[in-house]
Write a structure and sequence with these properties.
The chain is about 40% helix and about 20% strand. With about 200 residues, the chain is an alpha/beta fold.
Length: about 200
C-alpha cells in the first residue's frame, strides 16, 4: 500500500445559495492567505471556452461525447447536465493530482454537488455552507446587484430557500451577516481543519 504523503492537500467544499457571498469569501481566503495553499478544483465542461479561457486553467473543455464517455467510465466525482449537452463536472483523477501537488483543493459547488462530494470523501473533506441571515436580506442583496430581472430574482430566492434546507448536511454553517466577520470566521474554520493532524 502506498504511504500517505505528508504534504498531501486537503479538501474544502464550499456551497451556498446565490447571493450569500460565497465567491467573495473564497476569493478573499485565496488572495489574502496564500499560506493556506488553496486552489480551486479544475472542473470539466462541454461548453466552448469563453474569452481568454484556457484548457486546463479555468476548465478542461470536452465535447459532449467525451464527457458522456467519462460518465460511463465513472471518472467523475460529481457532474450535472445543466442544459441539453451542456455538462459540468469534477474529475476524481484531477482532484488526486492537485492533492498530490500539495494543494488544498477548494470545491466551489452547488449544494447538491457539495453533499455528493462530502459523501465520497467523508472526514477527509470539510464541507462549509454559507448562508445569508435571512431570505429577506438575500432579496435585498440580489436587488442591490441590479443584474437580474424581478422574475429571475424570485427564482433565485425560491431556489435559495430550498437549498437552505440542506444546510444541516454540512460540517459547518457560516451565516454571512457581516462580511468582515464572515471572512474571519471562514479563515478560522478552514485553518482549524487544515491544521488538524
Amino acid at each position: 500500500m502506498a504511504k500517505k504523503k505528508k504534504n498531501r492537500g486537503r479538501l474544502i467544499i464550499v456551497s451556498a445559495p446565490s447571493g450569500s457571498g460565497k465567491s467573495t469569501i473564497v476569493n478573499w481566503l485565496m488572495q489574502e492567505h496564500p499560506e493556506l495553499r488553496l486552489a480551486f478544483s479544475i472542473s470539466c465542461t462541454s461548453r466552448a471556452p469563453r474569452g481568454q479561457e484556457k484548457n486546463g486553467v479555468e476548465y478542461f473543455f470536452l465535447t459532449p461525447e467525451e464527457f458522456r464517455a467519462k460518465i460511463e467510465r465513472d471518472e467523475f466525482l460529481e457532474y450535472e447536465e445543466v442544459y441539453n449537452d451542456r455538462f459540468y463536472g469534477t474529475l476524481k483523477e484531477q482532484v488526486v493530482r492537485q492533492q498530490e501537488a500539495g494543494q488544498n483543493v477548494v470545491f466551489d459547488v452547488d449544494v447538491k454537488g457539495g453533499i455528493n462530494i462530502k459523501k465520497h470523501y467523508g472526514d477527509e473533506a470539510l464541507s462549509l455552507f454559507i448562508q445569508p441571515p435571512s431570505v429577506e436580506e438575500l432579496r435585498r442583496r440580489l436587488l442591490g446587484r441590479a443584474t437580474d430581472t424581478p422574475e429571475a430574482i424570485e427564482e433565485r430566492l425560491a431556489k435559495a430557500e430550498y437549498e437552505m434546507t440542506f444546510a444541516t448536511q454540512f460540517d459547518r454553517i457560516l451565516v454571512n451577516d457581516d462580511l468582515d466577520v464572515a471572512k474571519a470566521e471562514a479563515f478560522s474554520i478552514v485553518s482549524e481543519f487544515l491544521n488538524k493532524k
